Amino acid sequence: EIHIKEPIEKEVNPRLLPGELLLCEASTVYKYVQEDGSNRGTYGKLVCTNFKISFLDDDSASDDNEPQFKNKIVGENDITLQCVDQIYGVYDEKKKLLTGQLRKYPETLIIYCKDLRVFNFCLRYTKEEEVKRIVSGIVHHSQTPKLLKRLFLFSYASAAPNNTDGRNQTVMFETLEDWRDELERTKGNVKYKAVTTNEGYRVSEKLPLYFVVPICISEESILKYEGRGIPIWCWSCHNGAALLKMSSFPKEQDDSTSQMQKAFLDGIYKTISKPPYELLRMDDLSSSLPSLQDIQTAYTRFKQLFLIDNSTDFWATDVKWFSLLESTNWLEIIRRVLKKAIEVAECLEIQHTNVLLIEESATDLCCVISSLVQVMMDSYSRTKSGFQSLIQKEWVIGGHSFLDRCNHLHKSEKEEAPVFLLLLNCVWQLVQQYPPAFEFTETYLTVLSDSLYVPIFSTFFFNSQHQRDTNKSGESLKTQSGPFRFLTVWDWSVQFDPKALAFLNNPLYAEKPKPDRSQRKTARFKHQRQLSLPLTQAKPSTKRGFFREETDHLIKNILGKRIGKFINSSDEPPNSLREFYDSWHSKPVDYHGLLLPRIDGPEIKVWAQRYLRWIPEAQLHGGGTIATAAKILDLMEEVQSLQVKMDEEHSQAVSGDVHSVPLLRNSARLSSLFPFALLQRQSVKPALPTSTWKDLEDEDDLVKRDDEFVDLSGDML
């Protein structure tokens, strides 16, 4: 049975961005909402542009039903072409992957997205010619290889007015002054210098225009091997120890070349190992961490667990959730990366040793570890502007190959690997373990991960600064005489209005107090105890890790078990590292000092907001951390309004910094996955009960208690 909503009579046209062109469209397309297997849905128009695939129904014509967390660029039913992961067609109830030229056209189109949304479009009632056009158009424009200049990034940059927000405080690291300021901030300017050797990219196209090296390194050394074998400065610790990175020489070389390179490296090591430099520890990440291929394989398996478009599939996999999750190896990779960052932090903090990270290009795992270490050790990197500056320094200017790793041009799947997403997953572990230490929220990390696939920003669409600079010229386009003016993703006002931006700021952020040390320590101790999560008290039972000792264990079985991951790892850290780890965790947390992630057993969790936000079965109605956040925002709004009344002279300044969100004050109960998932989709019991549901048969009253859902805030978000 199909519940049909009448086709729309009035014409609905897509909202096009500057430079966006309509390529093909199909009317009378039926979009399924398959959360309960009833095939309910709505009719509308499916369109494909040079920027996105979009479904337009009658709700698209009005602003009455706009979501509470609206993205101004990408709507709820929009999929950017770069966000399309795979496209399947359904032929006689059989799914087939669609690529290249099609001989036969499907009756249903299924689009799997990189942000884990799943769209089902029924084409049974659409005209045959329109079906051919729309299916061929979507497959061609989203799946076939394309030239860099064919990205919508260039169309938008040539047509959009340049009216971006100038208040962006992110350091872009595009000038020599930016690097010198960073050296001064970290007090690394005594032993390290910013160099201009690569101006005009005469050393290497992979290196940035400006970078920092030890003062003792000569210009001739930098030029000799195109920057390879040169230790490049990342960050300096408060005690003078520094974090460095280096691109290694190719392994397959003839003997004479290898001998020359070895002698060159020996000379470099001796130079930077003697005073005034600290002792040097080298760490080859290619041998101590998983390969990029391993990371890609693990993530491919992991994301399949969340690309679910109906309740039956969800509950069918629920009973074997732990084994499925463990078999992906994704959480284990996160744990290994965090453990490596702890090792580096221990060398810098305790042993006062310089750490040199070595990798073939020094632009993948080097970026992950160096960024994580700075987030853990430098409280500035835990502010929003500081974190964004860190991403600019280590990733964007540092030369991470976003274009290849995200496979934006669909040229080679061999180069694809979710390296940046791995970093965000690791940072999320810290954010959810120590919320007051971060100025930004997990929602900020989620929208940042989504922005990887929005090609109006140049931030994540080039392989290097050189590639960006050489393609910035618009001379090849007849309509463009001057250089392109690309947007940066750090101007969040392009995507969100002020109400939505409030969700990116953490209302519980413990700002750095004035330097009264005795008072600060006392306050920090109390603050940490009040906000600590009770996870450390929960001990997993021997039976598959369920929370058996909790009173509402059944609800936790069907929801909580999707989040915790129980690992019995055999590779225990060395004794000195374990002592460092245990000693730090035995003391009160200094939210503006060193932070060490908890990496034992179930402490490594699934990033629920990102991976479960489109699955209604995983939502807690009226629960989760969003319920707490809503109350806090309400209280903040009330306090601020009282302050305005008390001091009218400061009313403008106070109201200008309001983080309140009046839209939260409504009678509707929020989902734990708000603001991404609203209460429009309800989950129902599957037709074929699983063992979990059999356990629940005698607990109907427990399931029906709407207002008594267990708060899994620590697990869910």
TrEMBL record:
<dbReference type="InterPro" id="IPR029021">
    <property type="entry name" value="Prot-tyrosine_phosphatase-like"/>
</dbReference>
<dbReference type="InterPro" id="IPR030576">
    <property type="entry name" value="MTMR12_PTP"/>
</dbReference>
<protein>
    <recommendedName>
        <fullName>Myotubularin-related protein 12</fullName>
    </recommendedName>
</protein>
<dbReference type="GO" id="GO:0016020">
    <property type="term" value="C:membrane"/>
</dbReference>
<comment type="similarity">
    <text>Belongs to the protein-tyrosine phosphatase family. Non-receptor class myotubularin subfamily.</text>
</comment>
<dbReference type="Pfam" id="PF06602">
    <property type="entry name" value="Myotub-related"/>
</dbReference>
<dbReference type="InterPro" id="IPR010569">
    <property type="entry name" value="Myotubularin-like_Pase_dom"/>
</dbReference>
<dbReference type="GO" id="GO:0030017">
    <property type="term" value="C:sarcomere"/>
</dbReference>
<keyword id="KW-0703">Sarcoplasmic reticulum</keyword>
<dbReference type="Pfam" id="PF12578">
    <property type="entry name" value="3-PAP"/>
</dbReference>
<dbReference type="InterPro" id="IPR022587">
    <property type="entry name" value="MTMR12-like_C"/>
</dbReference>
<dbReference type="GO" id="GO:0046856">
    <property type="term" value="P:phosphatidylinositol dephosphorylation"/>
</dbReference>
<dbReference type="InterPro" id="IPR030564">
    <property type="entry name" value="Myotubularin"/>
</dbReference>
<dbReference type="InterPro" id="IPR011993">
    <property type="entry name" value="PH-like_dom_sf"/>
</dbReference>
<dbReference type="GO" id="GO:0016529">
    <property type="term" value="C:sarcoplasmic reticulum"/>
</dbReference>
<keyword id="KW-0963">Cytoplasm</keyword>
<feature type="domain" description="Myotubularin phosphatase">
    <location>
        <begin position="173"/>
        <end position="611"/>
    </location>
</feature>
